[in-house]
Predict the structure of Gliding motility protein GldN.
Amino acid sequence: MKSTFKWLSLAMFSFSLTVAVAQVPEQVNPSNDDFPDFTKMGSGSKPSTTSKPQTSSSTTTNSSNTGGAVSNQQPVKIEPVENKGNAPRDPDAPLDGIVENKTILEKEVLPWEPVREADIMWRKRIWRVIDVREKLNLPFMYPEETFISILLKGVQDTVNGIKAYRTDDDKFSYKLTSQEVSTMGSSVDTIQQVDPVTYETKLKIVVNKLNPEDIKRFRIKEEWFFDKQYSTLKVRILGIAPLKDETDEAGNFLYEKALFWVRYPDCREYLARHKVFMEGNDANPMSWEDLFELRRFSSYVYKESNVMNRRLQDYMQGMDLLLEGEKIKQEIFNFEHDLWSY
């Protein structure tokens, strides 16, 4: 009797265990659409458990409006923020300082004295390079207004701006439009973006504008001549060209490229209206025209007029190149010095 009861108890326990295992539901990874949308249901409606296909939408339901109910977890569309960097200046902006600075704006630019061809008994054309990373040239990279930004604004101004010329030659033969200058130096990249909803890979074209920090050097074209009417050695800057380093995809240097040329005699009036940051007395500001006329910059000789029309780097490298540039400077100094007897 006891053995029969023990056998029945064991059989009933095995049957109940089998039924319990059969009733365990299969584990499924829930998605956003497997949850019922309580925000669209009334007080007497029943939640729907049928899943809906995923759809891309840019709107979401705010759970705070439904008393803390669960909302559709759909991606939020991020609107691009407008860049206020180029916004026009407020005409009613307060004065930044104790007095209004009018010295630069009202300063009169002195014209160059006329020179006759018959009075030039000697002249030599020199090309120089200004490296803005040198200590004396740091004003070229003043963060509030870099020199390249001043040039770009002047070229893009069609009313009171300055003219830009192509770099096919440095003779100012071919004029550039403001649109060509604005797109010059910019690059176009193609990147891949993954849609967070559909997981599709899309190609997006990104236009990278010219970064002022990429301009590390400027090329200067000038002429040294001896005026026998005044018996003095003079120099006149003829043109300025910003230089940009071109690199490959890995960031390795390829070559140096001149973006455009501006004729310095034509932009003297424009440069005289822009202030240069100089340490010392802020009450006596200096303009960019003053900086070039007083030659308050550091540079090295890049090329001189020669029969082969070669640059120094075409036949010299390293320290020899710098020494050859200093030799050209010394020759100009010695020419003036040897004209006089002491």
